[in-house]
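If I may wish for something, please sit down with the protein I am sending here and say whether tokens and residues agree:
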Amino acid sequence: MPRTLIFALCSALIFCQGVSAEIYTWTDADGNTVYSDKPSPNAQRIEVSTPNSMEPPRPTPSYNQNSSQADTSSSTQSRYRRVEITSPANDSAVRANDGNITLSVAIDPPLRSGALLRARVDGTLGAQALPGAGQTQANLTLPNLDRGSHQIEAVITDTRGKEIGASSPITVHVQRTSLNQPGRLNSANQAPRAPAAPTAPNVPAPPASAP
């Protein structure tokens, strides 16, 4: 019988019967080596040592601790300490007949590559975006705002639209010419123009005086 098989059988008998079990071996009539926990004529007792005991392995966590720490560190580094609208001032009136308002925004740390600076007006995030290129100061134009008061925020997002940082909201009161104001070009209520002065009729030249 191969030694590896014999060793496996011994091991199985040891663990199945416990520490106090006795193991016997002998050779049968066919020349085969036999192992058993029951004695037999001409059998030899095998000294069994106490098997090693070990605790079952603890389950490993489903996440990698180093990876989790790296993700946390990366998330912290991706945040911005300062995103602030420095102009126009909060609660200020801005004259803009075309409705275009320019925001000046201070950013710290600088606006990184892959980040986008956008404006949120009255709770709606604008589609216009300024890509990051290491700016600490950035200007962002808001086109065609309606007359009246608006709440505005500067927002930094990644390319997937996830918000990374945002300023405190400011209120801006836009002043622009009303569409219904008389005299505005193409307005339905445009004031009528004064009629043109009539052209004087042709007057014949006086006759030449006699010599």
